[in-house]
Write a structure and sequence with these properties.
By secondary structure, the protein is mostly helical. Helices cover 69% and strands 5% of the residues.
Length: 264
């Protein structure tokens, strides 16, 4: 596992052990509680590390989803941005639950669980690798983009109908928070790319700049990458071969720079 995925899993597991050892000790202070959520702002993030003590499947499935989708996404985004995406997804998930589930019922309700953050991580995976097949129960293949779409429709339908103890609007909020963060991150990366292009034009011919970049990117150790990142590397290099370095998006250039930087 990558560093932040491992830290989140360890922290969540440790909190769960405390929860089952000393019931209600942490829930009282750190769960997202409808009536006084706005007076305990830390609970919009802290609730993500709590789970229902009597339901092991609650923490198991959340951490399993993080284990499957988190490492490759952290490798793609870097540790700092991955942690930001996880927390923002969970916070937006908590806000959506509060607005669409708790408040219409008079503010009653307690929210715990990492689902919002994990759903944001799943959205991040589908954002970068939309056509990557995911095997449901290890058998049924479905592309990541369609899986997210189906989960969105199901969560919306169940949320409107009232899905029992499942916080469907927190799941939807996780998708929303992850998407908004990734779009913001992508927009933020456009400015450095434009600045790089502006500085390169007057002093260095385009072909020389491109050749220097390709020389650096060609040193990426393909065999050390996760298979999905290897496929992304091959796709980007094929794109460069077909349309040139100038055709790369900010996200594609950042992908190459991240993995080539590891060699410096």
């Amino acid at each position: 596992m990558t560093p932040w995925v491992l830290r989140i899993v360890i922290a969540t597991g440790a909190v769960y052990l405390i929860q089952i050892s000393i019931p209600n000790l942490l829930e009282t202070l750190f769960a997202l509680y409808g009536p006084n959520a706005w007076f305990r702002p830390w609970s919009f993030a802290s609730y993500m590390f709590l789970h229902a003590p009597g339901n092991f499947g609650h923490i198991f499935w959340n951490m399993l989803g993080l284990f499957f989708f988190g490492p490759i996404l952290e490798s793609r985004l870097g540790g700092r941005h991955f942690l930001q995406l996880y927390l923002i997804s969970g916070i937006v998930g908590g806000l959506c639950w509060l607005i669409f589930s708790a408040m219409p019922m008079g503010g009653v309700g307690v929210l715990v669980g990492a689902s919002g953050g994990v759903f944001g991580v799943q959205l991040g995976f589908a954002y970068f690798w939309p056509r990557q097949p995911i095997h449901i129960w290890g058998i049924i293949p479905i592309e990541a983009r369609w899986l997210v779409l189906i989960m969105t429709v199901v969560s919306l339908w169940m949320g409107v109908r009232g899905g029992g103890n499942v916080a469907h609007f927190a799941h939807l909020g996780g998708f929303l928070g992850g998407f908004l963060f990734l779009r913001w991150l992508e927009a933020r990366q456009q400015a450095p790319l434009r600045e790089w292009q502006r500085k390169a034009r007057p002093s260095v011919p385009r072909m020389e700049t491109a050749s220097k970049a390709m020389e650096r990117w060609s040193r990426i150790r393909r065999e050390e990458l996760h298979e999905v990142n290897r496929a992304e590397l091959d796709r980007i290099l094929d794109k460069i071969g077909a349309t040139g370095v100038a055709s790369l998006t900010a996200s594609e250039r950042e992908f190459l720079e991240r993995f080539s930087a590891r060699l410096q």
